[in-house]
Amino acid sequence: MAAGDSPMLQFEVKPLVELKLGGLDASLTNSGAWMIAAVIAITLFLTLGVRSRSMVPGRWQSMAEMAYEFIADMLKETVGAQGRKYFPFVFSLFMFILVCNLFGMLPYSFTVTSHIAVTGALALMVFVIVTAVALATHGLHFLSFFVPKGVPLPMLFLVVPIEVLSYFMRPISHSVRLFANMTAGHTMLKVFGGFVVQMGVFGVLPFILIVALTGLEIAIAGLQAYVFTILTCLYINDAVHLEH
């Protein structure tokens, strides 16, 4: 495979509109453009979905209601009734990641969630908000979260540092899971796509495999949005109830 056909080139961030503000590079990149496109698409989707508010929902309204109920049920099952106040944040997070993942499946698009800078920023935002919720709800009693119940006193000198380290590792594991899955899937599709082109008429079998892998990658796009969101809900549950 030639250098110009490297499967990693699809992840390259490129400036679309050059913009300098003093010494700051504020250029609009392909990554930023697709994030803006995702926000616009979500806004249009939800606006069309709730516009009619019909007793017999149409296609758009049904899909919007399904998305709403999916996240509402997720919060209710993981956090309980207290999770309702966090619905706007969790719903926005789920829809943004889902749409960005799905947009990445379009030809000549850019997969925003294949960059650790994006997934890391989302995970860090979740971490900061969850920690703030825990401190606002429980005050310094939040520190008891790092002291598991039933652990003998001598063992606490070992267990507590491990619990603290585990807590602060959350943003890393939270972000890497999404980033790694999206990057690996798109790299694999690009590699197999290169084989199809190179094999010409003999590329029928790899082409069929590409179609199957594309379907799998679309499913993974939805699954990874779900996994990121359900982990966020579990973290909120820990912050609200101090469950360990």
Can you walk through the features of this model?
- The chain is mostly helical and 244 residues long.
- It has one domain.
- It is built from seven helices and four strands.
- The strands form two sheets. It has a two-stranded antiparallel sheet. Strands 2-3 form a two-stranded antiparallel sheet.
- Helix 2 (59-78) crosses helix 3 (87-103).
- The protein starts with 14 loop residues before the first strand and ends with a helix.
Descriptive keywords:
two-stranded antiparallel sheet; 244 residues; globular; single chain; two-stranded antiparallel ribbon; 7 helices
Instruction: Please tally the helical runs, counting DSSP H or I stretches of 4 or more residues.
Output: 7
* Structural class label: mainly alpha
Principal-axes geometry comes out as: globular
The tally of domains stands at: 1
Task: Give a quick rundown of the structure.
The chain has 244 residues and is mainly α. The chain has helices at residues 30-51, 59-78, 87-103, 116-138, 153-168, 170-199, 204-241; strands at residues 15-17, 20-21, 24-25, 28-29. It is built from 7 helices and 4 strands; from the N terminus they run E-E-E-E-H-H-H-H-H-H-H.
